[in-house]
Amino acid sequence: MKNRTRWLRPAVLFLLVWMLSCTAAFAGDAEEVTKELKLTLSTEQTVKVLTDSKYTTKRILEGGTVLTIEAPEEISTLYMVWDQIPGRWALRYGDRVELCGQNGFLHEAVFLKEPAKTLTVIIPDGGSVLCDVRAFTEGELPKDVHVWQPPYEDADMLLLPTHADDEHLFFGGTMPTYAGQLGMKVQVAYLTNHWGLREGSWHEPYRVHELLNGLWTVGVKAYPIISEFDDWYSKELDHAKGLYDNAYGEDALLEFQVELLRRFKPEVVIGHDVNGEYGHGVHKLNTYYLQKALELSDDPAAYPESAQKYGLWEVQKCYLHLWKENHVIMDWDQPLSAFDGKTAFQMAEEGYSKHVSQQEYFSVRRTGVHDCRSFGLYWTTVGPDTEQKDFMEHVVFSDAKKEPEPEQEPQQDPQQGTAAEPEPENGFPGVVTAAIAAVLVLLLILAAGKVRGGRKGKRG
Fold first, then answer.
1. Can you say whether residue 279 is alpha, beta or left, with left for phi > 0 and alpha for psi between -120 and 50 degrees?
2. Deepest in the core among 14, 122, 136, 448, taking most CB within 10 A?
3. pTM above 0.70, yes or no
4. Could you tell me what percentage of the chain is helix, strand and coil, using 3-state DSSP and rounding each to the nearest 5?
5. How far is residue 432's CA from residue 229's CA, in Å, rounded to a whole number?
6. pLDDT in tens, 189-224
7. How far apart are CA 458 and CA 56, in angstroms?
8. What b-and-e string marks burial along 32-63, b requiring 16 or more CB atoms within 10 Å of the CB?
9. Which uninterrupted H or E stretch holds 99?
10. Distance (Å, whole) CA 380 – CA 299
11. Please, what's the largest Cα pairwise distance for the chain?
12. Distance of alpha carbon 129 from alpha carbon 151, whole angstroms
C-alpha cells in the first residue's frame, strides 16, 4: 500500500500550495499603482495634474493626442475621469486595440482583457478634457471606483431632480432605501447640467463629478441622465419658462419629460415641490412640466417621435415633495443592512457630503421646506395609499415581478469592459473551489489507504 499512496502526499501538498496562491491572487484587494505611473503626452504637456486625484485640475487634449501609461507592475483596471463626455477613445495594450467611451461615462472603469504594464490612450478627433488617471492591479477595487451600468431600459422608479444635490436634499432616503437596500431599478434624470455652455448660465463642471460621487455612495448603479439644458437661476415660474423657451424652443422641457417617462417606463416617479422648495423657479418649472408629462406620456398624438421610439407609457404613481394631498412622512430612520446599519437619512447626508462645493449653503433636513421625508401622492392609477409608508404600495410591476429583486452585478461590455465578472458567493473563483474539492478527495483516499494498511498489519 505504501507504493500505491506514496504519490498522494506530494500531490496534496502541491494542490494546497496552488490553492493558497490562487486565493491570494483572486480574493484580495486590488493595489492602486497610480502614484507609480509614468505618464507621457504626445503634446509634451505636463501630466502631474492627471494623478493628483482632483477633478478640479485637468488637461485639455486635442484630437489625436496620445497618452502613454507605463506602470511598474501589470495593470488590470484603468479608471479614467473625464471632465466632459469624451467620445469614443481608443485604448491600446499588448496586441489589442479596444474602443472605449461608447456609453459616455465621465467616470469610466475599463477592465483589461489581459494585464499589461504599458498602455496608450488615443484621444478622439473632437478632443476631450481629462481630469484623472488611476490604475489598479488584479483584485477587488476600492469603493470610490465607479463601475457604472448603462441607464435602465425599464426602471422601477424615476427621480427627477433639477440640479446636482437636489436628489439628496429633497428626496432624502429614497435612493439609499430603494436602490441600495432593496436593489430596485432606480433611474435618476437631471433637468439641468452644470457645464454652462450658454451665456448667463452657471458654469460649474465640478458639480457633475460631485453628482456621480453622491449617487454611487447611496447605491445607485445605473448612470444618470444629464440633460442638455443649462442652469439659470430664477425665482418665478413664468420667468424660468421664458428663459428656457428662448434658449431651447417652446416646451422643449416638456418634450424631454415625456420622453423620459416613455423611455424608462417607471412605475413610480418622484418630483420636486410645485413651489420650488425654497422658491427656485427652475424647480417649479421641472414639476410644472412633469405634471403635464404625466397626462401626455400615454397619448400617441403627443410627441409621436418618442412614442414611436419607446412606445406609450402610463405612470402608476407620482409623488411630489411637500405635496399636501395624500400626504406621507417617509421613515428614513430605519437601519439598512446594505450600508452596515446606517439609516437612509444618514446615507442621504453621506451622499450630499460628496457635493463638496455646496456644503456651506444647505444640509439634509427634517424640517420646513427642506423636509426630505415629506411627500404627497399627486398621481395614481392604483388608488390611494393605505399604509402610507412605501412609495411602491399597490404597484403592479410591468415585468411581472412580485417583489423587488436584488440588484444584479453589472455585465461586462465586450468592447469596453465596464464591469468585472461576478465571483461565486463564497468569494473564491471556481478554480480555487475545484482545488479544495480535489484536496478533500485525495485526503479521503489517503485516509482510506491508512485504514486498510492498518488492518492488514493487525491480521499479520
1. left
2. 136
3. yes
4. 35, 20, 45
5. 51
6. 999 999 988 888 889 999 999 999 999 999 999 999
7. 81
8. bbbeebebebeeeeebeebbeeebeebbebee
9. strand 96-100
10. 17
11. 105
12. 23
Q: Is the pLDDT of residue 425 over 60?
A: no
Nearest CA to 101 out of 117, 124, 83, 119 is that of 124
Cell numbers representing residue 115 in the block: 494585464
Encode pLDDT of 273-298 as tens digits. 999 999 999 999 999 999 999 999 99
* Residue carrying the nine cell digits 493628483: 52
Q: What is the reported pLDDT for 37? A: 97
The residues facing 100 across adjacent strands are 89
CB 424 within 8 A of CB 433: yes
Q: In the beta sheet, which residues pair with residue 321?
A: 375
246: which 3 cell numbers? 428662448
Q: What residue ranges define each of the domains in the chain, with the CATH number in brackets?
A: 34-136 (2.60.120.260), 157-380 (3.40.50.10320)
From the list 344, 376, 348, the residue with the least C-alpha distance to 362 is 348
| Cα angle, residue 423 at apex, residues 435 and 73 outer, rounded to 5° | 85
Q: Give the separation between CA 382 and CA 408, rounded to whole angstroms.
A: 28
The three cell numbers locating residue 33: 499603482
Smallest Cα–Cα separation from 198: which of 229, 227, 241, 240?
Answer: 229
Residue 43 is placed in which grid cell? Answer: 503634446
